[in-house]
Structure formats: structure tokens, C-alpha cells
Amino acid sequence: MKNRVQALVGAQWGDEGKGRVVDVLAGNADVIVRYQGGANAGHTVIAGGKKYIFHLLPSGMLYPNRICVIGNGVVLDPAQLKSEVDELSPAPSEIGTRLVVSCGAHIVMPYHKKLDLLSEAARKKLDSGSHIGTTGRGIGPCYVDKYNRIGIRAEDIVSPKILEKKLRLNLNEKNPVLEKIYRESPLEFDEIYEDACEWGRFIAPYLGDSTLEIDNALRDGKSVLFEGAQGTLLDIDHGTYPFVTSSSCVAGGCSIGGALGPGRIDRVIGVVKAYCTRVGEGPFPTEELNDTGERLRQGGAEFGATTGRPRRCGWLDLVALNYSVKVNGLDVIALTKLDVLSGLDELKVCVAYRLNGSETDIFSNSAEKLRETVPVYRTLPSWKENISGCRKFSELPQAARDYVNFIEESTSIKVGLIGVGAGREDTIIRDF
Length: 432
Ligand code: GDP
Ligand code: IMO
Ligand code: MG
Hints:
This protein has two domains: 5-93 and 209-429, Adenylosuccinate Synthetase, subunit A, domain 3 (Adenylosuccinate Synthetase, Chain A, domain 3); 106-205, Orthogonal Bundle (Adenylosuccinate Synthetase, subunit A, domain 2), CATH 1.10.300.10. Helix content is 33%, strand content 20%. It has helices at 18-25, 78-87, 92-96, 110-126, 139-147, 160-181, 189-203, 210-219, 253-257, 291-299, 318-328, 367-372, 398-411; strands spanning 5-10, 31-34, 43-47, 50-54, 67-70, 75-76, 99-102, 106-107, 207-208, 224-227, 267-273, 276-278, 312-314, 316-317, 332-336, 347-355, 358-360, 374-380, 414-419, 427-429. The chain has a ten-stranded mixed beta sheet, with helices on both faces. Strands 14, 16, 17 and 18 form a four-stranded mixed beta sheet that branches. Bound molecules: guanosine-5'-diphosphate, 6-O-phosphoryl inosine monophosphate and magnesium ion. Guanosine-5'-diphosphate binds next to helix 1 and strand 3.
């Protein structure tokens, strides 16, 4: 079968519409895998007139019979997972047969969330330009512990003795930081331990070996879809450091957090919003801090699915997109929210950057350089028609087709799927 293993990634700063594209593709996939990030993600799916926001569960969960895997690269907040499982209509016993949580996923503990918030507040107080604007979900501190080799993994919370030992070790390090650096009260062992044992009882039926699960599925001739979270420009290595998340959001992250050798990935899909948004701090060359930005925010309902924060909005940045094409090795683009551009007087796309008096089409992920960057725009014709009823590329107005063609010419990548509305059916599938 062609494209049996697909990796889907966000090509910008997150919230590109990954959840809705996964929802469309999951109809033809057997196994859907979240491979990194945690409940900082908010993936919206609108199906059957109902809205679902997934933070940890893979967005393929809505289809019956799909195996949904939470890989070892994910940082897992068990209380959040429980609320998502509870919210889904099928009985948890049915979910138990098709949700697999890797034993090696790291657990987000209460001190991670606390340290996330305290660190952000302290940085903001010291220098208003140095905080990141995190989601407050404890992501950074949890990954710190993973790489510091003190983290608590999913397999640990189902073993009360191991949990006790690891939790004591952690509190022994965390409490002095809370007390001495942040002047906070220390955390009590008993309360966290009891909660974690409870999470262990909840998670036990889902625990498994995600590496084997994926390998066995492939041996059985099944197809696998990796569901990226966040976006390329938020990647810890390739994003606009330090204004990034703490994980590998790019396609390469699938191999580590989803345990599949890179050579086994057949196709990389980049989800691209027809304009750009960013939540939190950090440079954003094409940001429109004016009526255009407000029009995009209102038209696209650009408010965070996890925190409710208004998203910063601006024009499509092809310099950044071409960087994303390279870093991920994109094979095809899924373009979302084209409908949001309907009715604008003109459309601008950034085709180069001006920096220190010269022009370049090369993206630098240096936050300092990006801040100095001035976008060079090409203005493209706009269209007035409402395109949300279009189901074929040929039904789009000429200017909308030209916009899509311009993206293809500028990136040398085919736009295979186009979103013209938030619902599952609001999709133009073109050669996908
Ligand atoms: P994700 O994190 O990448 O899954 O994206 P989010 O769910 O955070 O944000 C995308 C938002 O855009 C959600 O509210 C979606 O329902 C919505 N959306 C996705 N695709 C389209 C589209 O083609 N048109 C419109 N109008 N909305 C879309
Ligand atoms: P999805 O999967 C958009 C941003 C935060 C902040 C930075 C670091 O829905 O696209 P963190 O809490 O991860 O330490 O925050 O990363 N961020 C996201 N922005 N979409 C996301 O996920 C994000 N996950 C994290 O706003 O700027
Ligand atoms: Mg989101």
C-alpha cells in the first residue's frame, strides 16, 4: 500500500488545524500515534455537528476500531487524560481495547505545573521580555526531569513501591527549590502519592509497549498516522529558541517519541494555515498588530484551544514555510482555513526578509535576528465569495486557486488537501 506510514506535522507555530486534518485522514488509517508534547496541545475536531478538543488523546479516537497510541515521547497528565476518556461517549471499556499508553511516557506531576507557572512569573518580573508565555501545563519542567533522568514514567505509577521511592527522590529536590528560590510552601508527599496511585489504577488497563504495538500493526499490513503537536517553529531545536516548547515537534520526533525508524516513514504531511498565528511570546515577522490582525482573529476564531488566549495573527510567511519544508522533509501540504481569507481587500504573502539592508529568503531561527527582520510582501488578488461550500478545487474562485498555486510554486510542494471550514466535510481533497 502507498503511504502506509504518514507523519503529520504543524508547519508553523502550532494551531494550524492538525486535529481536523488527522480527523479527515484517520478515516483511512488503522493506528494513530501522538509522539511528543503533552496537554499543551489543543486539537479541535468538529464532526457530526459536535466539537471535540483533544489535548492528549489522538484525534483519531472518534473513529471506532482505530488503535490510538500515546507514545513514549509524550508527557502525560493522567488527570487530563481521564477527563478526555470520560468525555467520549463510548464506554471506557471500549476505549480500553484501542487506547495504548506507552510505559515510557513521562508523567506530568503537580510540581511540574507549579514550577512552570512560578518560573514564568519570575522571568516576567525580572525582565518582561524573557518569559515564554507557556500554557502552564508543566511541559518544560517535566521534560527537564526526563532529561535529568529523575522523571516518573507511566510504568512507575502502577508500582506503588517504585512510585514511593521516585516521588521521595523528586520532592527532596523540588521542595528546596520551591521554598528557597520561590518562597513557597513545600509539597506534601502523602497527597501527591495518593493521587498518583489513583492515576496508576486509572491508567493500568491502557499501559502497553507502544514500540511493539506499532511494529506489529505494520507487520499485519496496517497503516499508521503520526499526529504531530505544536509546530515546527516551536520545536526545541529548530524553532525560535528560547520561545519554543520543550519537545521535538518536527517529523524527526516521530522516530524518537513514536519509536519508528526514519526510513519507515513513507510520507510527511505539513499542515499549513493560509495565514499565520502564534500564541505566547516570541518573534513573529508577519504579525499584523492592526485591523487586519483583528479581522483574521475574528474571522478565524483565533483563540487558544488550550488556554483561550487570543492568538496573534498575520500574513502567510513563505520564508518560514520553506524552512519548515526543509526541516521536516515535507512531501505534501494540507492547507487549512482558506475560507478565512474570503472578503479581505487584498492578500499579502511574505516572500523574503530584509535584514541589515539586504534581502534574503533564508529563515534564521535566531530569535534576535528574527526580531530585526522586516518582511518583504507580494500582494495577491483577493476574492469576495464565500468558499465554504466548495468541495472541488475547480469550484474555488480564480483568485483562491491562484493563492494556492502561488504556495505550490513558492515551496515546490503540492497542496493536496484544502480546508474551507472547520467541519469534517468542509474539505477539498485534491490528489491526496
Ligand atoms: P491544531 O492544534 O493544529 O489541531 O489546531 P486548533 O484546533 O488549535 O486550531 C485550529 C482551529 O481552526 C480550530 O478551531 C478548528 O476548528 C479551526 N479550523 C480548522 N480547519 C479549518 C478550516 O479549514 N476553516 C476554518 N474556518 N476553521 C478551521
Ligand atoms: P497545538 O498542538 C500553539 C506554545 C505556547 C508557548 C510555547 C511554550 O495545539 O498546535 P509550553 O506550554 O509548551 O511550554 O509553551 O509554546 N504552544 C503552543 N502554541 N499550539 C500548541 O499546540 C502549543 N503548544 C505550546 O503558547 O508560546
Ligand atoms: Mg491547537
